[in-house]
């Protein structure tokens, strides 16, 4: 079986440049990278977790040092911090607050003062003279005993007059501790010395030990995970080497299929572009021929056929309007509507539109009234789009008014910026307050039954508001059920 596998190996792994070494190499690299990145993340997490634990203890210790420093009688400290006065009533009075503080604290080993003399630190008073924690057998430090060793944090506290805390734990044979130093000053503000506090960190050591054990366990898990990653990469790279030959052929087949799909997509895009561009052409032809047929039938006195053709023309015009609304809204959504701003005479425009709409209103038994005083300043806007907006508003008012009147009122604002206001009032059914928010939403119809009866897509008001806003204007509505509605367009006056 081994011979068969060896003889078959060249045929299966031939596509790979390094059939035996590449999978092993990639597996080792993947395992090493996984272990290195994971170990780095674990190390950073461990470091910041350890620092957070230490910072909490340092903060507590610094606060204790400040409290102890506030208890020292700095004005009498130097007078009693002499070897010959140790144990005297004056010495014990100055020492007493520190002793009581020491007895009230937990895990504090020593509370003492230090002074700087000739650039060197010396002990002042030491609470261990009167009180020692259980288990402490070390002798106390008498006044003016030189401080043993070097502690940079102590020297900074003595020279700068600032609170300092050891950055790292001090490990000794019998204990581990941290020290903090807080300055105290006499009434004149002179720096007299610092209070030193040594605190056991037994609980902190336990927490840090647990943290180390967790980190080591996680590291072992990462090593196992890295091994699994390497094995997985090895299997994948081996399978990839075997499949490479088949992939080459598959890539060639896919390239051919892609070319065919791109050609089909181009043909489809061309077809859709032509169809959308020419969508209204056949409808325009139908309307044109229908009008000719209607005129011919009326001339021949065939009223029934003329009526049928009239219904066909109405339906065609309605469909053309719907297509126009959809195309206009699509252009607005795509930002492809360009406006040509000119000075538009509002009175002349409204007179033209009212005369255009009056026959339809009269046929419905609705009076269409124009209230447009002379002397109104021209407003700035696109004449063609303004015609579209006002035709929509007047047409809607006529469609949804069964009796009464539609009034188109033109005014110029008397307060604030110079603006021209066109209001279209009707005496129709009105719109319920809870439905007003849907009025300018695309494809939304406040009363679908009435809209179907009158015709419409629910796009006209949405388009009108967008066009008015593009001309720096506003379109608002007020309505009361049973009393009618009022649509108000406000546009800026053309600058001189």
Report the strand count: 13
CATH class of the domain at 339-492: Alpha Beta
From the helix content, strand content and strand pairing, which structural class follows?
A: alpha+beta
Radius of gyration: 47 Å
Mean pLDDT, to the nearest integer, reads 82
CATH superfamily of the domain at 339-492: Histidine kinase-like ATPase, C-terminal domain
Largest sheet: 6 strands, antiparallel
Bin the helical content: 55-70%
Which outline best applies? elongated
Order of helices and strands: HHHHEEHEEEEHHHEHEEHEEHHEE
CATH architecture of the domain at 339-492: 2-Layer Sandwich
Give the distance, in angstroms, between the N- and C-terminal Cα atoms: 99 Å
Low-confidence stretches: 1-20, 268-273
Count of runs of 4 or more consecutive helical residues: 12
Using the coordinates shown, work out and report the CATH topology of the domain at 339-492: Heat Shock Protein 90
Strand content: 15-25%
